[in-house]
Amino acid sequence: MVRPVLQVALDLTELSRAEKIAEEAVSGGADWIEIGTPLVKSEGMESVRRMRAQFPSVTLVADLKTSDTGAIEVEMAAKAGANVVCVLAAADDAVIADALRGAALYGVEIMADMMNVRDPAARAEELAALGVQIINAHVGIDQQMTGKDPLALLDALGKLPVKIAVAGGLNAETAAAAAARGADIVIVGGTIIKSADVTAAAAAIRAALDSPKSVRSEKKTLDDQIRELLQTVSAPNVTDALYRKGAMAGLNERHVPHKMIGRAVTVQTFGGDWSKPVQAIDSCNAGDILVISNDKRTDIAPWGELATRSAMNRGVAGIIIDGAVRDWDDILTLDIPVFATAVQPNAGEPKGFGEIGAEISCCGQTVRPGDWLIGDQSGVVVIPRERAYEVARRAVEVFKTETRVREEIRRGGTLGSVAQLLRWEKK
User: What pLDDT is stored for residue 1 in this prediction?
Assistant: First the structure.
């Protein structure tokens, strides 16, 4: 078997950062360097020129995702120093043909990106017949967040008389699986470029590619996958993934012995009436989170220590109260997260007012049964149930980005310099 090429995708927006990361990636065993679409759009062809000056003998891929003016864009990239230029496989055949003519003139190869192609197998055969040299089974970042699998796309292409690349959120395990399935070029982005130790991350992928094997991972339920993803991130990561939305306000009383993750069981009560909140405990499954609205009343508590102990017996993952909680001294000794807007010794009467399982308003957020929540020392964030997997995946990407930024700060940078704030201020 021919040794698979490891292509590292520099999907960044700052060229100075990309240059350092590229150097570390090549040291770790990267064969090809991709000037990613965000970098090309941010820095233009100067990003290709600078990479060529930095790496005179490394194959450079310009991910232009060309969809029109094929030869013109190929010429720009080739003259700047690219060896491979990416076009969209979904572009018209006239664009592909023009790009190929430009590629022949300037001695570069064309990689066709299969993202969003409706019939990958048929289109791949057409592209090969047109003369495209590389077909890229690529699942885009936004598609990855919804669970689309690049290995499934790779399998759909079948056998072709051209080189096959694969890309889309690959790590050491899935990169090895791609190589075992015959991929000639394995493209890895975030797993390498967002690592604190880029050289080690690239070396780990390189080692996995050099000893490829098909991996049959244990099939997990969607809920298990969401929970596993959320375990790796923080509440701030999640609200970043939601574009600064979803955070509850006013939870001034917090007992957080550990991170809280789970689905919502909602309760609406009034005036401290603790009947429905207590009844709701028996509606919970292990791992659920009780979310209680006391109609913003903080002078009377619908929850206390005995209810908390009962919830623990059911395996409840945490309790959130838009209202007061009592028996706080005792609750602080228990190994379960409890969030409330106030502490108040007065309890209400169990009259049965309210409802279990309704959509409620809690601490400024709408919460529906089955919505996901994550809570830590920073607070609580609500994740809409229909977007839970996507948001969890996006939160992991936020976490990865922060990991790399943290490393650059550790090396002596500042957040302002790493983020290049002045450059990116809205004009």
Answer: 53
Give the strand pairing for 360-362 and 365-367.
antiparallel
Topology of 5-216 in CATH? Answer: TIM Barrel (3.20.20)
CA 292/CA 269 separation, integer angstroms: 7
End-to-end CA distance of the chain: 53
pLDDT digits (tens, 9 = 90+) for 184-224: 999 999 999 999 999 999 999 999 999 876 555 567 899 99
The confidence score (pLDDT) of residue 87 equals 97
CATH number of 226-389: 3.50.30.40
Report pLDDT for 216. 56
* Least confident stretch, 262-266, 267-271, 310-314, 419-423: 419-423
Place of tokens 């967040």: 145
Cβ atoms 24, 47 nearer than 8 A: no
Residue-range domain boundaries for the chain? 5-216, 226-389
Q: Are 373 and 242 in contact (CB under 8 A)?
A: no
What average pLDDT score do residues 350-368 get?
97
Q: Distance between CA 185 and CA 424 in Å, rounded?
A: 34
- What are the φ and ψ backbone dihedral angles of 378, each rounded to 5 degrees? -80, -20
Among 69, 77, 129, 136, residue whose Cα is nearest residue 106: 77
CA separation for the pair 111, 65 (Å, rounded): 9
311 phi/psi in degrees, rounded to 5: -65, -40
